[in-house]
What does this fold into?
Amino acid sequence: MMNADEFYKNKPKNVVKIEQDRVWRYVVTDHCSGCLFVWYVFGGENSENLCETFIQAMQPKAERLQDPFCGVPVNVMLDPGSANTGHGFKHLNKQLGVNVIINKVGNPRAKGQVENGNNLVETQFESRLKLVRINSIEQLQGLANRWMRYFNGQKIHSRHGMSRYKAWQKIMPEQLIIPPPTEYCRELVLSKPEERKVNPDLTIDFGGRKYDVRNVPFVLVGESGAGKSTLREDLQDRINREGRQVVVIEPYVLAMEDNDQKGKTLKAVHIAEAILEAVSPNTSPKRSPEARFRQIHKALADSAKAGNKHVLVIEEAHCLPIPTLKHLKRFFELKNGFERLIGIVLIGQTELGQKLSENNPNVREVVQRCEVVTLLPLTDGKLQGYLKHKFERVGVNVADVLTDNAIDAIAARLTVTSRNKNQLQQQSLLYPLAVNNLVSAAMNEAASLGFAKVDADIVKGI
It folds into this structure.
């Protein structure tokens, strides 16, 4: 205990002395619905407590039906305190794709809703605790959780005329982004996701442990002719050679476009039909969407019990409409207990990478669950190794067909230089299909001229 006169004599220093023994309140409020979230901590206002409060506010609650408020916001607004502007909180939000807005000094309207939220917590919850013995911060938080469920679920908000939870539940499914688990979010405060090479057995090594990634949705992006379809064919061939019990589901994408004006869109119902046809070919699909999706869930579960794995492969995925991309998340979340029932591979041109950008809020919930792999051109010395491999497959030494300066000329011929403002930019087109076509044309030209080898002059003349 500290005498009141002594405390206020040197208040800033004395606050620091007792902050570890005092309970501090954080209040989070949703701008649209007015939902309130209150979190109690020891240790005062610091970056660790701020991050933990924000993480807890975003997480789905144990009593989900009674307390539905959760999700990653698009923006978060705070006062310009040291904890609020610190590296940890900014880093967490950067990894989650949240835009941090720091209120300007002297702009009380910006924080009026938070101030009102603190007032509501103080007058309608904390004021009732005067005759209650609180033995731990966990007990206090439990009482606060119960009050939040009552207040947000029952009290009518004067602005929209509904309870706060009812207003919040008008959120569109594509707007609700469930955050990663609590422990993972805590890791994001001080670190960021790291790349790892996938082992042949579809595992990765991290932190001295192995993790199975065979069920992680996989997105393969590359220019036309980069070898995407070849990798798909290699996957199917490997499954056949190794005798793996993997059911490959490939919806037909003929005439598929991302809108109905240019062609036919591939919808979730078409994917469901393809899954049912591959997994249970003699089963007639149900007529209603609800019954049909329940039917494919059961079919996948029965097939998994028989020892099968399932992978959905969609080529030309850059033509998928945004709603279908978002619906793929629902297919990926089909489970039998804790076991996922289907993996997903999307194969498309560079437009697919643009659609799945982390800056696109419409697909953020999909992007957070994907591994995106981009097929790069044959630069940095890879061209010579590629040509050597291609010729060796037919028993020919590349040096007997191409001179060294011919290989350099191929690289130069398939590099485009353009001007962007005041700078020159180079774009490489050294993809397998383009290289194959150029080398074939050069070999035919050399043969017609009676040359023994292809040299740089022949390549330049193509």
In short: The radius of gyration is 30 Å. The chain has three domains: 17-189, 213-375, 382-461. The chain has a mean pLDDT of 82. Residues 94 and 252 are 38 Å apart (CA to CA).
